[in-house]
Amino acid sequence: MSTKKTFFALTLCVLFAFQAFSQSQFKVFLFTKTAGWHHPSIHDGVNAMRNLAERHNFDLVWEENADRCFTENFLKDFDVVVFLNTTADVLNDDQQKVFEKFIQSGKGYVGIHAASDTEYDWPWYNQLVGKMFKIHPAQQTAMIDVADYNFPGMEVFPKRFMWTDEWYEFKKENYSEVNVLLTLDETTYKPYAKWGDNVGEGMGYHPIAWYHNFDGGRSFFTGLGHISSVYSEPWFLQHLYGGIYWAATGKGIKE
């Protein structure tokens, strides 16, 4: 073989090897549109997601314009959609149908905090999330208990730990049966809140993070994530990535 041909063959080998080593695990679409309260922590969450993408070798696309991204052609290449502190009605009827088809095709959803304060009048989305926001008291410190260590990302938590965040009380309706990961100890903070006729006095048994299979796809939700500083907490980032990893791939649960 001539020197020129040998060089060409070696170059191809290097290029193919680089492509194999640099190929991303999966593709994540990060959606942050708000039609109600806009959380200042969204930008911290976006930066955290970018860091996770770099650390764990997945592709990340961030967008908050639903008209550009909730089309079948746009979503077809993604494995999971993350709703980061979205609020109120963020998708029109056609966009909702596109997202339903996306999940039904075996793809994943991750909801962070105010994702449960989104699309109340869309029953399918309520079922996808699992539980929907009702009210919250002032930000406080509380104790959280781990309910399941078999889900990816949970291995970093102690059995019981202290956390400061904005604690959502969820509506009594169980829109879907979910697998609970974290529960909130209501005896360690003041759950009472009153917004006009809307009164919250706690839930008793209080799930704050969960996952489930739904309509052919996968759904993970965490109620943590209101405060900007949370997005630099290693425990939270591992918890979040565990949910993304499972929702995107279906892998990681210890049987």
Walk me through this protein's architecture.
This protein has 255 residues and is α/β, with parallel strands linked by helices. The chain has a single domain, classed as Class I glutamine amidotransferase (GATase) domain (Rossmann fold, 3-Layer(aba) Sandwich), CATH 3.40.50.880. Helices cover 31% and strands 25% of the residues. It has helices at 3-22, 42-56, 66-69, 72-75, 93-104, 123-129, 234-249, and strands at 27-31, 59-63, 80-84, 108-112, 133-135, 140-146, 160-165, 169-170, 179-185, 193-195, 198-200, 207-214, 217-222. The longest helix is centred in the N-terminal third of the chain and has 20 residues, at 3-22. The N and C termini lie far apart (53 Å). This is ThuA-like domain-containing protein. Residues 1-22 form the signal peptide. It holds the Pfam family ThuA. Keywords: Signal.
Helix content: 25-40%
End-to-end gap = 53 Å
| N to C succession of SSEs | HEHEHHEHEHEEEEEEEEEH
> How do the strands line up in the largest sheet?
2-1-3-4-13-12-9-6-7
- Tally of discrete structural domains: 1
Number of H- or I-type helical stretches: 7
CATH top level label: Alpha Beta
Radius of gyration: 20 Å
Count of DSSP strands: 13
Biggest β-sheet, characterized?
9 strands, mixed
Low-pLDDT regions: 4-21
CATH-derived architecture:
3-Layer(aba) Sandwich
Keywords: Signal
InterPro entries: Class_I_gatase-like, ThuA-like
Domain ThuA-like: 27-247
Organism: Saonia flava
Task: Briefly characterize the structure.
Keywords: Signal. The protein is 31% helix and 25% strand.
